[in-house]
Amino acid sequence: MRTVRIENLPNRSQMHELYHGRGSLGANRMKKILVVRIGALGDAIHALPMVNELHRREPESEIYWAAGPSVVSFLKGHSALSGFITVNKGVKGLFNAAKLVRKKFDCAIDAQGLIKSAFIAASSSNMVIGRAWNSVREKPASFFYTEKVEPQKEHIIEQNLELLEPLFPNETKFEIKYDIPIHEHPEWKLLSETPILFNIGGGWWTKLWERENFVQLANRIDKVLGLPVGIVWGPGEEDNAKYIAAHSSAQLAPPTLFRDLAGIFSKARLLVSGETGPLHLAVAVGCRTIALLGPTAGTRNGPYGKEQITIEPQLPCRPCHSRTCADFRCMPMITPDRVFNEIANKLER
Q: Does the CA dihedral 87-282-198-294 come out positive or negative?
Protein backbone atom coordinates (compact mmCIF):
# COMPACT_ATOMS: atom_id res chain seq x y z
CA MET A 1 0.00 0.00 0.00
CA ARG A 2 1.41 3.36 -1.02
CA THR A 3 1.77 6.11 1.56
CA VAL A 4 -0.56 9.00 0.71
CA ARG A 5 0.58 12.52 1.56
CA ILE A 6 -1.14 15.82 0.86
CA GLU A 7 0.41 19.24 1.29
CA ASN A 8 -1.19 22.70 1.17
CA LEU A 9 -4.72 21.39 1.50
CA PRO A 10 -7.28 24.10 0.57
CA ASN A 11 -9.79 24.97 3.27
CA ARG A 12 -13.54 24.81 2.71
CA SER A 13 -13.97 28.47 1.69
CA GLN A 14 -11.19 28.10 -0.88
CA MET A 15 -12.85 24.97 -2.19
CA HIS A 16 -16.13 26.81 -2.61
CA GLU A 17 -14.37 29.48 -4.64
CA LEU A 18 -13.01 26.80 -6.89
CA TYR A 19 -16.30 24.95 -7.20
CA HIS A 20 -18.54 27.93 -7.83
CA GLY A 21 -16.80 29.72 -10.62
CA ARG A 22 -14.30 32.00 -8.86
CA GLY A 23 -11.36 29.73 -9.48
CA SER A 24 -10.10 26.82 -11.49
CA LEU A 25 -10.06 23.37 -9.97
CA GLY A 26 -7.11 22.18 -12.04
CA ALA A 27 -5.03 19.07 -11.59
CA ASN A 28 -2.40 21.14 -9.75
CA ARG A 29 -4.90 21.59 -6.87
CA MET A 30 -6.71 18.23 -6.91
CA LYS A 31 -3.67 16.04 -6.40
CA LYS A 32 -5.35 13.17 -4.61
CA ILE A 33 -8.99 12.10 -4.76
CA LEU A 34 -10.66 9.28 -2.84
CA VAL A 35 -13.69 7.41 -4.15
CA VAL A 36 -15.56 5.34 -1.57
CA ARG A 37 -17.64 2.41 -2.81
CA ILE A 38 -17.03 -0.51 -0.45
CA GLY A 39 -19.18 -3.13 -2.24
CA ALA A 40 -20.81 -4.95 -3.94
CA LEU A 41 -19.17 -5.90 -7.23
CA GLY A 42 -22.09 -4.89 -9.43
CA ASP A 43 -22.35 -1.55 -7.66
CA ALA A 44 -18.61 -1.03 -8.10
CA ILE A 45 -19.03 -1.52 -11.86
CA HIS A 46 -21.75 1.14 -11.81
CA ALA A 47 -19.25 3.58 -10.28
CA LEU A 48 -16.53 2.95 -12.88
CA PRO A 49 -17.83 5.42 -15.51
CA MET A 50 -17.65 8.16 -12.87
CA VAL A 51 -14.07 7.21 -11.99
CA ASN A 52 -13.05 7.10 -15.65
CA GLU A 53 -14.64 10.47 -16.31
CA LEU A 54 -12.87 11.95 -13.31
CA HIS A 55 -9.58 10.56 -14.61
CA ARG A 56 -10.27 11.92 -18.11
CA ARG A 57 -10.89 15.43 -16.77
CA GLU A 58 -8.09 15.36 -14.18
CA PRO A 59 -5.44 13.09 -15.74
CA GLU A 60 -2.68 14.35 -13.45
CA SER A 61 -4.63 13.61 -10.28
CA GLU A 62 -4.20 10.39 -8.35
CA ILE A 63 -7.47 8.58 -7.76
CA TYR A 64 -7.74 6.04 -4.96
CA TRP A 65 -10.65 3.70 -4.23
CA ALA A 66 -11.74 2.60 -0.74
CA ALA A 67 -13.40 -0.80 -1.10
CA GLY A 68 -13.80 -4.27 0.32
CA PRO A 69 -11.28 -7.00 -0.53
CA SER A 70 -13.36 -8.53 -3.34
CA VAL A 71 -13.72 -5.19 -5.15
CA VAL A 72 -10.00 -4.44 -4.70
CA SER A 73 -9.08 -7.84 -6.16
CA PHE A 74 -11.39 -7.35 -9.12
CA LEU A 75 -10.29 -3.79 -9.98
CA LYS A 76 -6.58 -4.25 -9.40
CA GLY A 77 -4.74 -2.95 -12.44
CA HIS A 78 -7.49 -0.54 -13.57
CA SER A 79 -5.89 2.23 -15.63
CA ALA A 80 -7.73 5.13 -13.91
CA LEU A 81 -6.75 4.15 -10.39
CA SER A 82 -3.53 4.91 -8.55
CA GLY A 83 -4.22 2.64 -5.61
CA PHE A 84 -6.69 1.19 -3.14
CA ILE A 85 -7.66 1.47 0.51
CA THR A 86 -8.88 -1.95 1.61
CA VAL A 87 -11.88 -1.78 3.95
CA ASN A 88 -12.17 -5.04 5.85
CA LYS A 89 -15.39 -6.17 7.52
CA GLY A 90 -16.44 -5.11 10.97
CA VAL A 91 -15.92 -2.06 13.14
CA LYS A 92 -12.18 -2.67 13.35
CA GLY A 93 -11.84 -2.76 9.58
CA LEU A 94 -13.85 0.45 9.25
CA PHE A 95 -11.77 2.38 11.79
CA ASN A 96 -8.50 1.05 10.39
CA ALA A 97 -9.45 2.34 6.93
CA ALA A 98 -10.52 5.71 8.34
CA LYS A 99 -7.24 6.01 10.20
CA LEU A 100 -5.25 5.14 7.09
CA VAL A 101 -6.86 7.87 4.97
CA ARG A 102 -7.13 10.55 7.66
CA LYS A 103 -6.97 14.01 6.00
CA LYS A 104 -4.70 12.76 3.22
CA PHE A 105 -6.94 13.65 0.25
CA ASP A 106 -8.00 16.89 -1.43
CA CYS A 107 -11.49 15.55 -2.10
CA ALA A 108 -13.56 12.47 -1.32
CA ILE A 109 -16.61 11.17 -3.20
CA ASP A 110 -18.98 8.82 -1.42
CA ALA A 111 -20.73 6.81 -4.14
CA GLN A 112 -22.37 4.43 -1.67
CA GLY A 113 -24.36 6.59 0.70
CA LEU A 114 -24.04 4.53 3.86
CA ILE A 115 -22.98 5.86 7.24
CA LYS A 116 -19.82 3.75 7.12
CA SER A 117 -18.84 4.92 3.63
CA ALA A 118 -19.56 8.54 4.53
CA PHE A 119 -17.46 8.17 7.68
CA ILE A 120 -14.45 6.99 5.67
CA ALA A 121 -14.93 9.79 3.11
CA ALA A 122 -15.20 12.47 5.82
CA SER A 123 -12.13 11.09 7.58
CA SER A 124 -10.08 11.50 4.42
CA SER A 125 -10.78 15.09 3.36
CA ASN A 126 -12.26 18.50 4.21
CA MET A 127 -14.25 18.34 0.97
CA VAL A 128 -16.72 15.45 0.82
CA ILE A 129 -19.24 14.93 -1.99
CA GLY A 130 -22.33 12.76 -1.57
CA ARG A 131 -26.03 12.59 -2.27
CA ALA A 132 -28.57 14.84 -0.60
CA TRP A 133 -30.72 13.80 2.37
CA ASN A 134 -33.70 12.73 0.27
CA SER A 135 -31.60 10.53 -2.04
CA VAL A 136 -28.92 8.97 0.14
CA ARG A 137 -29.40 5.32 1.17
CA GLU A 138 -28.89 5.98 4.89
CA LYS A 139 -30.05 9.52 5.56
CA PRO A 140 -27.65 10.36 8.41
CA ALA A 141 -24.80 9.82 5.94
CA SER A 142 -25.61 13.19 4.37
CA PHE A 143 -24.45 14.98 7.54
CA PHE A 144 -20.88 14.01 6.63
CA TYR A 145 -20.99 15.74 3.23
CA THR A 146 -19.87 19.28 2.52
CA GLU A 147 -21.28 19.10 -1.03
CA LYS A 148 -24.70 17.47 -1.41
CA VAL A 149 -25.95 16.44 -4.84
CA GLU A 150 -29.64 15.91 -5.61
CA PRO A 151 -29.86 13.32 -8.42
CA GLN A 152 -31.72 14.39 -11.54
CA LYS A 153 -31.20 11.20 -13.55
CA GLU A 154 -32.82 7.81 -13.04
CA HIS A 155 -30.11 5.25 -13.71
CA ILE A 156 -27.53 4.71 -10.98
CA ILE A 157 -24.64 5.05 -13.44
CA GLU A 158 -25.85 8.54 -14.38
CA GLN A 159 -26.50 9.37 -10.73
CA ASN A 160 -22.89 8.46 -9.95
CA LEU A 161 -21.72 10.74 -12.75
CA GLU A 162 -23.79 13.54 -11.24
CA LEU A 163 -21.56 13.34 -8.16
CA LEU A 164 -18.90 15.07 -10.27
CA GLU A 165 -21.02 18.20 -10.68
CA PRO A 166 -19.50 20.05 -7.69
CA LEU A 167 -16.11 19.58 -9.34
CA PHE A 168 -17.21 20.45 -12.87
CA PRO A 169 -20.33 22.62 -12.45
CA ASN A 170 -20.56 23.76 -16.06
CA GLU A 171 -20.06 20.35 -17.66
CA THR A 172 -23.12 18.41 -18.80
CA LYS A 173 -21.70 15.78 -21.16
CA PHE A 174 -20.01 12.69 -19.79
CA GLU A 175 -18.55 9.59 -21.40
CA ILE A 176 -19.62 6.10 -20.35
CA LYS A 177 -16.47 3.99 -20.12
CA TYR A 178 -15.64 1.04 -17.89
CA ASP A 179 -12.18 -0.20 -18.97
CA ILE A 180 -12.68 -3.45 -17.09
CA PRO A 181 -9.42 -5.37 -16.64
CA ILE A 182 -9.62 -8.63 -18.65
CA HIS A 183 -7.90 -11.41 -16.74
CA GLU A 184 -6.96 -14.94 -17.76
CA HIS A 185 -9.88 -17.32 -17.34
CA PRO A 186 -10.20 -21.12 -17.17
CA GLU A 187 -10.26 -22.84 -20.55
CA TRP A 188 -13.77 -23.61 -21.79
CA LYS A 189 -14.04 -25.06 -25.30
CA LEU A 190 -17.64 -23.90 -25.66
CA LEU A 191 -16.47 -20.28 -25.95
CA SER A 192 -15.03 -20.99 -29.40
CA GLU A 193 -18.65 -21.44 -30.58
CA THR A 194 -19.81 -18.01 -29.32
CA PRO A 195 -22.53 -19.40 -27.04
CA ILE A 196 -25.56 -17.89 -25.40
CA LEU A 197 -24.78 -17.87 -21.69
CA PHE A 198 -27.03 -18.16 -18.65
CA ASN A 199 -26.04 -16.57 -15.34
CA ILE A 200 -28.33 -18.41 -12.92
CA GLY A 201 -27.40 -16.75 -9.61
CA GLY A 202 -28.35 -13.64 -7.71
CA GLY A 203 -27.39 -11.97 -4.49
CA TRP A 204 -30.97 -12.17 -3.17
CA TRP A 205 -33.35 -15.10 -3.60
CA THR A 206 -35.98 -12.61 -4.78
CA LYS A 207 -33.79 -12.02 -7.88
CA LEU A 208 -33.66 -15.70 -8.86
CA TRP A 209 -35.41 -17.28 -11.84
CA GLU A 210 -36.49 -20.92 -11.37
CA ARG A 211 -34.08 -23.52 -12.69
CA GLU A 212 -36.89 -25.25 -14.60
CA ASN A 213 -37.31 -22.03 -16.58
CA PHE A 214 -33.64 -22.17 -17.59
CA VAL A 215 -34.08 -25.81 -18.61
CA GLN A 216 -37.03 -24.99 -20.87
CA LEU A 217 -35.25 -21.98 -22.35
CA ALA A 218 -32.04 -23.93 -23.09
CA ASN A 219 -33.94 -26.73 -24.81
CA ARG A 220 -35.92 -24.33 -26.95
CA ILE A 221 -32.81 -22.43 -28.01
CA ASP A 222 -31.23 -25.73 -29.04
CA LYS A 223 -34.32 -26.99 -30.89
CA VAL A 224 -35.35 -23.78 -32.68
CA LEU A 225 -32.16 -21.76 -33.04
CA GLY A 226 -29.57 -24.54 -32.97
CA LEU A 227 -27.21 -22.42 -30.86
CA PRO A 228 -24.96 -23.59 -28.03
CA VAL A 229 -25.83 -22.62 -24.46
CA GLY A 230 -23.51 -22.41 -21.46
CA ILE A 231 -24.13 -21.93 -17.74
CA VAL A 232 -21.92 -19.79 -15.52
CA TRP A 233 -22.27 -20.22 -11.80
CA GLY A 234 -20.80 -19.04 -8.54
CA PRO A 235 -20.55 -20.16 -4.90
CA GLY A 236 -23.67 -22.00 -3.74
CA GLU A 237 -25.05 -22.28 -7.30
CA GLU A 238 -23.35 -25.47 -8.49
CA ASP A 239 -26.24 -27.84 -7.70
CA ASN A 240 -28.73 -25.78 -9.70
CA ALA A 241 -26.23 -25.41 -12.55
CA LYS A 242 -25.69 -29.17 -12.67
CA TYR A 243 -29.45 -29.76 -12.63
CA ILE A 244 -29.97 -27.44 -15.63
CA ALA A 245 -27.11 -29.10 -17.53
CA ALA A 246 -28.46 -32.59 -16.76
CA HIS A 247 -31.94 -31.76 -18.06
CA SER A 248 -31.03 -29.70 -21.11
CA SER A 249 -28.42 -29.26 -23.83
CA ALA A 250 -26.67 -26.50 -21.85
CA GLN A 251 -23.04 -27.04 -20.89
CA LEU A 252 -21.60 -26.29 -17.49
CA ALA A 253 -18.81 -23.73 -17.21
CA PRO A 254 -15.69 -24.63 -15.21
CA PRO A 255 -15.40 -23.08 -11.75
CA THR A 256 -14.65 -19.37 -12.08
CA LEU A 257 -13.95 -16.31 -10.00
CA PHE A 258 -15.85 -13.09 -10.65
CA ARG A 259 -12.80 -11.56 -12.33
CA ASP A 260 -12.69 -14.53 -14.76
CA LEU A 261 -16.13 -13.68 -16.11
CA ALA A 262 -15.01 -10.55 -17.96
CA GLY A 263 -13.03 -12.59 -20.47
CA ILE A 264 -15.77 -15.23 -20.71
CA PHE A 265 -18.55 -12.69 -21.36
CA SER A 266 -16.46 -10.92 -23.98
CA LYS A 267 -16.67 -14.12 -26.08
CA ALA A 268 -20.39 -14.75 -25.63
CA ARG A 269 -23.15 -14.15 -28.14
CA LEU A 270 -25.55 -12.98 -25.44
CA LEU A 271 -26.15 -13.32 -21.69
CA VAL A 272 -29.44 -14.07 -19.92
CA SER A 273 -29.28 -13.07 -16.27
CA GLY A 274 -31.06 -11.70 -13.26
CA GLU A 275 -30.07 -8.27 -11.91
CA THR A 276 -26.76 -9.05 -10.27
CA GLY A 277 -23.03 -8.36 -10.57
CA PRO A 278 -22.27 -10.65 -13.56
CA LEU A 279 -25.03 -8.95 -15.57
CA HIS A 280 -23.41 -5.54 -15.18
CA LEU A 281 -19.97 -7.01 -15.84
CA ALA A 282 -21.24 -8.40 -19.15
CA VAL A 283 -22.55 -4.97 -20.13
CA ALA A 284 -19.21 -3.40 -19.19
CA VAL A 285 -17.25 -5.68 -21.55
CA GLY A 286 -19.67 -5.15 -24.45
CA CYS A 287 -21.76 -8.31 -24.24
CA ARG A 288 -25.43 -8.05 -25.22
CA THR A 289 -27.72 -8.98 -22.35
CA ILE A 290 -31.31 -9.84 -21.54
CA ALA A 291 -32.00 -8.97 -17.92
CA LEU A 292 -34.77 -10.55 -15.84
CA LEU A 293 -35.81 -8.09 -13.16
CA GLY A 294 -38.12 -8.62 -10.20
CA PRO A 295 -37.56 -6.53 -7.05
CA THR A 296 -35.41 -3.86 -8.74
CA ALA A 297 -36.28 -1.37 -11.48
CA GLY A 298 -34.77 -1.43 -14.95
CA THR A 299 -34.72 2.36 -15.18
CA ARG A 300 -32.38 2.54 -12.17
CA ASN A 301 -30.62 -0.82 -11.92
CA GLY A 302 -31.09 -2.50 -15.29
CA PRO A 303 -28.34 -3.09 -17.85
CA TYR A 304 -27.21 0.28 -19.18
CA GLY A 305 -27.34 1.01 -22.89
CA LYS A 306 -29.63 0.81 -25.91
CA GLU A 307 -28.31 -2.61 -26.91
CA GLN A 308 -29.51 -4.17 -23.66
CA ILE A 309 -32.98 -5.62 -23.01
CA THR A 310 -34.84 -5.67 -19.71
CA ILE A 311 -37.82 -7.92 -18.98
CA GLU A 312 -39.79 -6.91 -15.92
CA PRO A 313 -43.41 -7.63 -14.94
CA GLN A 314 -45.84 -4.80 -14.31
CA LEU A 315 -46.94 -5.10 -10.70
CA PRO A 316 -48.02 -2.35 -8.28
CA CYS A 317 -45.68 -3.71 -5.59
CA ARG A 318 -42.51 -3.31 -7.59
CA PRO A 319 -39.87 -2.15 -7.50
CA CYS A 320 -39.66 -3.07 -3.84
CA HIS A 321 -35.88 -3.56 -3.54
CA SER A 322 -36.67 -6.24 -0.98
CA ARG A 323 -34.62 -9.34 -0.20
CA THR A 324 -37.70 -11.10 1.19
CA CYS A 325 -41.28 -11.40 -0.01
CA ALA A 326 -44.46 -12.98 1.36
CA ASP A 327 -46.22 -12.85 -2.03
CA PHE A 328 -43.48 -13.62 -4.55
CA ARG A 329 -44.97 -13.08 -8.00
CA CYS A 330 -42.60 -10.92 -10.02
CA MET A 331 -39.90 -13.37 -11.16
CA PRO A 332 -42.37 -16.26 -11.68
CA MET A 333 -44.33 -14.01 -14.07
CA ILE A 334 -41.39 -13.99 -16.49
CA THR A 335 -41.94 -17.00 -18.75
CA PRO A 336 -39.38 -18.94 -20.82
CA ASP A 337 -41.46 -18.17 -23.93
CA ARG A 338 -41.15 -14.45 -23.38
CA VAL A 339 -37.40 -14.67 -22.83
CA PHE A 340 -36.96 -16.87 -25.91
CA ASN A 341 -38.87 -14.41 -28.08
CA GLU A 342 -36.62 -11.60 -26.90
CA ILE A 343 -33.55 -13.69 -27.70
CA ALA A 344 -34.82 -14.55 -31.17
CA ASN A 345 -35.69 -10.92 -31.91
CA LYS A 346 -32.34 -9.72 -30.59
CA LEU A 347 -30.36 -12.11 -32.74
CA GLU A 348 -32.29 -11.11 -35.87
CA ARG A 349 -31.20 -7.47 -35.58
A: positive
